[in-house]
Amino acid sequence: VQLVESGGGLVQPGGSLRLSCTASGFTFSTYGMSWHRQAPGKERELVAAISSTGTKTYADSVKGRFTISRDNAKNTVYLQMNSLKAEDTAVYYCKNRGYWGQGTQVTVSS
What we know:
Layout: E1 2-6, E2 9-11, E3 17-24, E4 33-38, E5 45-50, E6 56-58, E7 66-71, E8 76-81, E9 90-96, E10 99-100, E11 104-108
Parallel strand pairs: 2-11
Antiparallel strand pairs: 1-3, 3-8, 4-5, 4-9, 5-6, 7-8, 9-10, 9-11
């Protein structure tokens, strides 16, 4: 199993980013996927998850601002992040079962 994230970067407060996670080594369409993040000095936390059938769940802190989606034809899960805040700054990780990607840094700063 391999999970490769991309799309992180530096963005101003109120801005947007879209993260991508491309998966390989398993039948992507049959598994749920999730995004997690870890800020400096804090524990890793669940941000959003999407089941194999498309059911979505979100952390309260990102509801209404972030959207998780998946494209099974591309073996890719996305995280659209809007109205970004400084507290969204973290390394964002993609996860499938016990497998993690390498992470992508998101920094929200003016």
